[in-house]
Design brief:
It contains 8 helices and 8 strands. The protein has 298 residues and is of the alpha/beta class.
């Protein structure tokens, strides 16, 4: 990862978050949950999407259930979410690809479905509506896509669904590349929205369970080691929160930020031509769940 020193931002005080409407897709666990709880504790009105709600006792957090491994669910929930009034939309849903190819009942490789393709489907409905009904908004609406941007993954638009060849890393790289390209493409197609990529680096969460075996000894050892070496989700949330509201983001679009919220350069291989091919491959794969969608292509 290389720093982008042209992008300099100054933190917004946490008071700026009071009263803001935030949607966190993936806000029920791990990093998304830490961000949701922090923003709600400073007065934000947060809606989280996920499978298991763990914060019913917390004021300021509403829950919308959805299994985002299923594209029909992704479309349904996107159409139901109160995007018109939202100031900030954050995507943090994710898993890691399993050692052997797993497929959802939609016929989609599971990591691709959970970590990338549902975002592609949801954004078709969410991006055109985001923040449209707000009054007196101090800034343009913002989308933050969490993944692993700036790390050189280009993905394979010729085998997006890993049907010809499967490795866990190869499949996961399709999700990493796809999410980085979503940011670049959103900035291109929706200049009225600020779109940004977030790379949290290594954080101790549940994300590697699908690769290492949920709650297996190996999983617990790896996460314990990560916990010793890297910050936890709450520390990362405290680091990234002042960026989410920074007035300086009005001047940039499509920027990526590392684990310390410093701007980083996008992956060089993600040329406009490559992005168009990847988006077209995503469109083909998601087509059955996009039918009848009136919103523009991503
Ligand atoms: N942790 C790291 O070291 C690391 C490193 C690089 C990038 N990232 C990125 O950071 C983001 C957050 O990851 P994390 O580490 O916080 O992971 P995590 O602790 O496993 O949390 C993942 C979130 O995704 C949700 N989720 C998983 N499967 C779902 C499904 N089928 N339907 C609906 N929601 C589902 C979970 O909700 P439920 O619990 O409700 O199912 C949870 O809210 C991801 O984009 C990941 O790629 C993380």
């Amino acid at each position: 990862m290389r720093r982008d020193r042209k992008i300099v931002w100054h933190p917004a005080g946490m008071a700026a978050i009071a009263g803001k409407r935030v949607i966190v897709v993936g806000g029920t666990g791990g990093i998304g949950r830490a961000i949701s709880r922090l923003l709600a504790s400073h007065g934000a009105d947060v809606t989280v999407v996920g499978r298991r709600f763990r914060d019913a006792d917390r004021p300021g957090i509403a829950f919308v259930p959805a299994d985002l491994g299923l594209m029909g669910e992704a479309r349904r929930v996107a159409e139901e979410l109160p995007a018109g009034n939202a100031d900030i939309l954050i995507f943090t849903t994710g898993i890691f690809a399993a050692p052997h190819r797993q497929m959802t009942t939609d016929g989609i490789e599971r990591d691709l479905a959970v970590s990338y393709l549902n975002r592609f489907v949801m954004l078709r409905s969410l991006a055109p509506r985001l923040g449209r009904d707000r009054r007196d908004a101090a800034f343009r609406p913002r989308i933050f896509v969490m993944g692993y941007p700036g790390t050189g993954a280009a993905g394979d638009p010729g085998d997006l669904n890993a049907e010809r060849r499967y490795t866990a890393l190869g499949a996961h790289k399709n999700t990493i590349a796809g999410n980085e390209m979503l940011v670049i493409n959103l900035a291109r197609r929706f200049p009225g929205i600020g779109s940004f990529g977030l790379n949290p680096g290594l954080i101790r969460t549940d994300i590697r369970g699908n690769l290492l075996g949920e709650n297996s000894l190996r999983h617990r050892i790896v996460e314990t080691l990560i916990g010793l070496l890297a910050p936890d989700a709450d520390s990362y949330a405290r680091r990234i929160a002042p960026l989410l509201l920074s007035p300086d983001l009005e001047r940039f679009n499509g920027a990526m930020f590392d684990r310390k919220a410093r701007a980083i350069l996008p992956t060089a291989a993600l040329t406009p031509d490559h992005i168009d091919r990847f988006m077209a491959a995503s469109e083909r794969l998601a087509q059955p769940w996009l039918e009848g969608a009136s919103s523009p292509r991503l």
